[in-house]
């Protein structure tokens, strides 16, 4: 008698697991068929750019970066990373030091960014959008 009950219990468990599995598969198929992202269109973002391109940006930095005299006397060389917002109109705002080297060079890097001309703003689809940009500023005595 115990064997019959045990066999029946095993068979019921086995059948229930198939039933649950079939229901799960049916729900998954329904979920996949009603996927809200199926017909979504994701627009690629075109990043902002310095007007005139990378060469113009490098020329701007070369012409306008003021190496502090004290930093020159101390032989300070290094890279400061500045992060700033480029508005949907291309204006530079809210510059902050993302990676500091020395406070004296940090200030010079911020001054460079604050004096920077407008950029071409980032775009997404046909719209200009506000973005953040990180720019490494290299201080080298060579």
Automatic annotation (TrEMBL):
GO terms for cellular component: plasma membrane protein complex. Keywords: Cell inner membrane, Cell membrane, Membrane, Protein transport, Signal, Transmembrane, Transmembrane helix, Transport. Transmembrane segments: none annotated. The keyword Cell inner membrane applies. Residues 52-142 form the TonB C-terminal domain. It is found in: Cell inner membrane. One of its GO terms (biological process) is protein transport. It comes from the Bacteria. It is a single-pass membrane protein. InterPro entries: TonB-dependent_transducer, TonB/TolA_C, TonB_C. GO terms for molecular function: energy transducer activity. Residues 1-22 form the signal peptide. Belongs to the TonB family. This is Protein TonB. It comes from Cecembia rubra.
């Amino acid at each position: 008698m115990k064997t019959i009950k045990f066999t029946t219990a095993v068979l019921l468990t086995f059948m229930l697991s198939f039933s649950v599995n079939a229901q799960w598969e049916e729900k998954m198929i329904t979920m996949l068929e009603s996927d809200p992202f199926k017909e979504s269109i994701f627009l690629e973002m075109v990043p902002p750019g310095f007007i005139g391109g990378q060469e113009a940006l490098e020329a701007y930095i070369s012409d306008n970066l003021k190496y502090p005299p004290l930093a020159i006397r101390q032989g300070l060389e290094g890279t400061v990373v500045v992060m700033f917002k480029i508005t949907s109109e291309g204006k530079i705002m809210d510059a902050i030091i993302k990676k500091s080297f020395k406070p004296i060079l940090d200030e010079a890097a911020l001054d460079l960014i604050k004096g920077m001309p407008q950029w071409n703003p980032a775009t997404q689809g046909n719209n200009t959008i506000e973005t953040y940009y990180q720019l490494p500023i290299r201080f080298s005595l060579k």
